[in-house]
Every structure is written in C-alpha cells, then in structure tokens.
Amino acid sequence: MSQHVLDQLFQVIEGRKGADPDSSYTAKLFAKGRKKIAQKVGEEGLETAIAAVAETPADITAESADLLYHLLVLWADAGIDPADVWAELARRQGISGIAEKNSRPK
Ligand SMILES: N=c1c2ncn([C@@H]3O[C@H](COP(=O)(O)OP(=O)(O)OP(=O)(O)O)[C@@H](O)[C@H]3O)c2ncn1[C@@H]1O[C@H](COP(=O)(O)O)[C@@H](O)[C@H]1O
C-alpha cells in the first residue's frame, strides 16, 4: 500500500531536525522550541474553526492543512510516533463516542 501523505510529511519534518532555520520553516519552528510549536497548533486550530463558521470550503481545507502540518511538527518535537496515533484511532473504531463517555468513572 502506498504510504499516507501524513506519514510522508512526517518523514520530511523529521529530516528537518538540525537543518538551517534560514532555509527551512520547520527547522525554524524546532529552533524556537515546544512553546512556539504549541502556540502555532493553537492558532491554526482557531483559524480552522473560524474558517468553518465564516469562510469558504477552500479556506477550511487550507487551514486544516496548516493545522495538520503544525500538529505533525509538534509530534516530531515531542517524540510521538504517528503510528501510535493511528493505532489509537484504530482502537477506537467501532466504539461510539457517547458509549465511551458514559463508561467513564463518574
Ligand atoms: N505543509 C507545510 C506547511 N504548511 C504551512 N506551512 C508554513 O506555515 C507558516 C504559517 O504561516 P503563519 O503566517 O501562520 O506563520 P508565520 O507568520 O510565518 O510564523 P509566526 O510569525 O507565527 O512565527 C507559513 O510559513 C507556511 O509556509 C508549511 N511549511 C511547510 N510544510 C511542509 O513541510 C515541508 C518542509 O518545509 P521546510 O521546512 O520549510 O523546508 C514542505 O515541503 C511542506 O511539505
């Protein structure tokens, strides 16, 4: 099976660790550190939400791509393997979000 675009992008992002911040935006984010990366994830999430209520489908698509890119940078910085996120999503398949919430300890 061909590799998912998010896995391909994650490899590119990993390869930017230690690269020149003047020629790579990803390297610039790594150089600025976790707080800056987390801030960008928050900003892009908010921009996606705003696009969802006030902008066009093309804007939602573009903001979603920005959000996913910055989330992958966050995972790379935090040592999170995307495969673990995919596995967690797969584990949840078939479990209703409402049933899961109701099963939590009160
Ligand atoms: N997918 C992306 C991607 N999406 C968004 N961005 C960048 O994210 C930035 C977001 O813009 P903003 O205005 O919010 O941020 P900013 O004003 O530049 O930053 P701050 O002032 O907030 O620090 C822009 O510079 C975009 O170009 C991305 N930069 C890189 N990629 C991918 O990462 C690969 C490697 O990129 P480099 O590391 O730059 O070589 C690229 O080939 C792409 O595949």
UniProtKB/TrEMBL annotation:
Its EC number is 3.6.1.31. It holds the Pfam family PRA-PH. GO terms for biological process: L-histidine biosynthetic process. Its main location: cytoplasm. It comes from the Bacteria. Keywords: Amino-acid biosynthesis, ATP-binding, Cytoplasm, Histidine biosynthesis, Hydrolase, Nucleotide-binding. Pathway: Amino-acid biosynthesis; L-histidine biosynthesis; L-histidine from 5-phospho-alpha-D-ribose 1-diphosphate: step 2/9. GO terms for molecular function: ATP binding; phosphoribosyl-ATP diphosphatase activity. It is found in: Cytoplasm. GO terms for cellular component: cytoplasm. It catalyses: 1-(5-phospho-beta-D-ribosyl)-ATP + H2O = 1-(5-phospho-beta-D-ribosyl)-5'-AMP + diphosphate + H(+). Belongs to the PRA-PH family. This is Phosphoribosyl-ATP pyrophosphatase.
